[in-house]
Amino acid sequence: MNIIEKLEKQERLNYEDAIKLYDLDLFTLAEYANKIRTDKHGKKTYFNINRHINPTNVCKDVCQFCAYSASRKNPDQWTMTHDEILEIVKNSSKNDIKEVHIVSAHNPHTGLQWYMDVFRKIKENFPAIHVKALTAAEIHFLSTEYNLSYQEIIDMMIKHGVDSMPGGGAEIFDEKVRKKICGGKVTSEQWLEIHRLWHTAGKKSNATMLFGHVEDRNHRIDHMIRLRDLQDITGGFNAFIPLVYQTENNYLKVKEPLTGQEILKTYAIARILLDNIPNIKAYWATSTVKLALIAQEYGANDVDGTIEKESIQSAAGATSANGIAQLEFVDLIKNSGFIPVERDSIYNEIKTW
Questions:
Q1: Which residue positions form the known binding site?
Q2: CA nearest neighbour of 46 among 277, 350, 263, 285
Q3: Which of its termini does the chain have fewer beta carbons within 10 Å around, N or C?
Q4: Number of domains in the chain
Q5: Over the stretch 128-155, which tens digit does the pLDDT of each residue have?
Q6: Quick one: which of 284, 270, 282, 265 has its CA closest to 231?
Q7: Are 242 and 215 in contact (CB under 8 A)?
Q8: 207 φ, ψ (degrees, to nearest 5)
Q9: What's the DSSP call for residue 256?
Q10: At 322, which CATH number?
Q11: Quick check: helix, strand or coil at residue 231?
């Protein structure tokens, strides 16, 4: 049976099948990805009202792709106080945010309790706000730094008010690529194990893939299939987020960013291949707003959120530093021919515009 026949029957694709998807033309991929998207979500495009907070840029690790860390090129180091973080949440709560998304560097000086106390304080002061915090890479760092198991860190997170985990730190699972771009960071197997434990605790998380740097197409396929395998076991991933690599201010020296066609192909392939992950998010902070909206025709059904303030992707050249206003989001989605649906962090629908 050839690949088109399998697509027509919506059969689950293996690695060899999935590699062939990249050989198909963009519009053929769009046709099959959009059918799956429409079957699952109709014309709905999800977004949330959220605030990103990056509390520190001091980092123990040296990842070649990172422009955010202050330990190398950026001499402007910062670590927020709890009062500063709480003031940000207070101000953002006036904008009716539903989620605070806390991700930062691997700072060896702040301390494990520093993280846990800030989660607790946010939850005590703003109990209705969903706390999404600590990537698997951060959990691995804290586990190593404080000689605690992943399970112990996860138990602490839940106790102190963390509601869900972001998908960062996955990068590309192939270990040869990881050695080049983020050697010494959490391994692929460790990343998957941390998310497995989180899901086993009854919690949800997202999954990401950083692409467009030194990886090949086969590395992307391998990455997605490993996520699919874990999802078969736990069912804990809310969404898959292909993150488009930002080329500025880092050590990889990737001269040419991916073409829009290659990015859209990857979104479409993700929707076709990840039959058990309900949502594909085109995170506008890495893809640009325009491409994220176009991606809604190629299998994606989410554009992330208002963000308000973003430091990690914008440090590498993305135009996401100041977020997007809620009503602008709504208009952009409507003008693209889709139905804007505000959601919460675990995809309960709040309002259809």
A1: 59, 63, 65-66, 171
A2: 350
A3: N
A4: 1
A5: 999 999 999 999 989 988 999 999 999 9
A6: 270
A7: no
A8: -130, 140
A9: S
A10: 3.20.20.70
A11: helix
